[in-house]
Design a protein that fits this description.
Layout lengths: L4 E4 L2 H13 L6 H23 L12 E6 L4 E6 L6 H9 L4 H9 L4 H11 L10 E9 L6 E6 L4 E7 L5 E8 L9 H12 L6 E11 L4 E10 L16 H12 L5 E9 L5 E8 L15 E5 L2 E4 L14 E6 L8 H6 L1 H24 L1 H21 L4 H7 L3 E2 L8 H6 L7 E6 L3 H5 L5 H6 L3 E4 L4 H5 L4 E2 L2 E5 L14 H21 L5 E4 L8 E4 L7 H9 L11 E4 L4 H8 L4 H17 L7 H15 L1
Parallel strand pairs: 2-8, 12-14, 16-17, 16-19, 20-22
Antiparallel strand pairs: 1-6, 2-3, 3-7, 4-5, 4-7, 5-6, 8-9, 10-11, 11-14, 12-13, 15-17, 18-19, 21-22
Helix pairs in contact: 2-6, 4-5, 9-10, 9-11, 10-11, 19-20
The structure holds adenosine-5'-triphosphate.
Amino acid sequence: MEAMAKQEFQTEVSQLLQLIIHSLYSHPEIFLRELISNSSDALDKLRHLTLTDETFKNLPFDPRIALGLDEEKSTLTIGDTGIGMNEEDLISHLGTIARSGTKNFLNQLSGDAKKDSNLIGQFGVGFYSAFMVADKIEVVSRKAGEELAWRWTSDGKSGFDIEPAERDVAGTTIILHLNDEGKQYANSWRLKEVVKKYSNHIAFPIFLTYEKSEWNAEEKKSDKVLTTEQVNAASALWRRSKSELTDEDYKELYKSISGDSNDPLFWFHTKAEGSLEYTTLFYIPSKAPLDLYQAEYKVGVKLYVKRVFILDDAKELLPQYLRFVRGIIDSEDLPLNVSREILQQNKVLTSIRTASVKKILTELKNISLNQPEKYLEFIQEYNRPLKEGLYGDYANREALLELIRFKSTAVEGLTSLADVKTRMQGEQKSIYYITGGSESLLRTSPLLEIYKKKGLEVLILDDEIDEIVFSGIEKYGEIDLKAVNKASTSEDLKDDSPEAKDEAEALKPLLEKLKATLGDRVKDVRASVRLADSPSCIVSDEEEPSLQMQQMLRAMGQKEIPLPKPTLEINPDHEIVKKLLARPDDAIAQDAAWMLFEQALLMEGVPLQDPAAFVQRLNRVLSLSV
Ligand SMILES: Nc1ncnc2c1ncn2[C@@H]1O[C@H](COP(=O)(O)OP(=O)(O)OP(=O)(O)O)[C@@H](O)[C@H]1O
């Protein structure tokens, strides 16, 4: 006998195995979906090679997945005629965790079995889930184009053994020695049920071989007859017409391609026939994928050419902001051997992509109009990626602006720009918004006072990307979009009457005094038209980032950039300002000047440069009034 080579699992593998066994025990049946999907991937890979690579062209290719059941021995085998694995592949694919996704999986595990079992498919810990139902697993595999086969054996505890083996054709056979938990799958009825549930639309036929009891009428007893049946539909379901498909069909396919066990929110199925022929089926998951905000997110759209799987990790299939979309693009016009490099500038794919984005955005718009409550569920998960689209997808800006929802001073919950437009006052020139800070900070900002007083709506943009995104968006249709913390926005509110002019003249000496006191900490000191109850506020110039944005840039390491100074605005009608106007330029007036500035900074959520000096001033002023 050949000596077996005993190898240890990478530490993470052992850790993962333990976690899987303990946290996913409530859904052990998913092991079968995972193994079948691995077989299907292996068949896709081999089919691709036989079509595109000269050395594999003449290889016989009989794609199938075979399940074999031995009830007596309590073993279940899952075999495929796919690409197979050689010794090195077995060690690296089944003995280590090479993929960063799996490490993420480990970090995300919560111990809540239901939640964790939803994670498993997203992070590709698939194979190991079989240890939930087996106390020993053998994998016999032969790689396409190679002569030798190998047997990998493990009890899922410490490590695995590898030894030479035999296999007639390329492919992989996985033999599960079922444990107590797994015994329920040593039953043909149960197996068929699980295959139908998860793997019905796998593009390859899945056969089940088992001993069927058949009634022997002559001898009046039941015989065991070895039977092989196809147990899945094996159709590329997306190629059928919509009228043939039920909601259940769509949901099943979604679950099998996404690894998500929840139903999708909606799906959009399109067949294009004309200069280009293709089918797309896109799904919106009901919950945002966990890696939505990770640079290394997993692509959710698979590319097929004439029903042949090509790849599922091409980030160019849809724009990045639609990375939460799951589904399939199946083209008749692309070459089968389309390479990744070609994909990037391929005209066919560019057209499909452009049309797909339009389709998705149009369908979302329809849902927003016809099923507003359902749309809200969508927005709760995906408002932010849509905003990213505003930044990157210039061509669809108008459509995206219609889809995004906003918090507002006028209504509870979220609102659309179309609704804001209907609420505009007769003389209102622009739609206003405020950015930079938490919702509560923004809602209490002195900058909103005049808008409140005049009954004008202001949108509360409290998402950290809002300022970057919306500073680039100047209009909604014909209407200007304006940030209330920009200096020029108050032009809209200006009072041009002669009385107002006189008042401004009278304020000039005070403004100059303040400017002299604050020196180079401010760019300018002006009379404000936007304040009602507060004595002062901070505004920024049109082209300059707001104070919060400057803080963010600094936090991101942009320390050298000279930061623009803020402009201080004071409220001419406020009691403190009026008193200051009448006051000689003494020490208290100086303290007051600083405190007008510092309180405006604090209201913006900007920390003070010299808190000690602030407290001394405060105490001097306090001692006069107590
Ligand atoms: N039947 C098979 N034929 C060929 N290779 C296989 C087979 N099963 C597993 N493998 C190899 O082992 C690797 C690990 O499989 P595993 O199920 O753990 O994760 P995965 O399939 O890569 O991830 P995911 O479940 O997210 O698709 C696969 O990527 C593949 O390379």
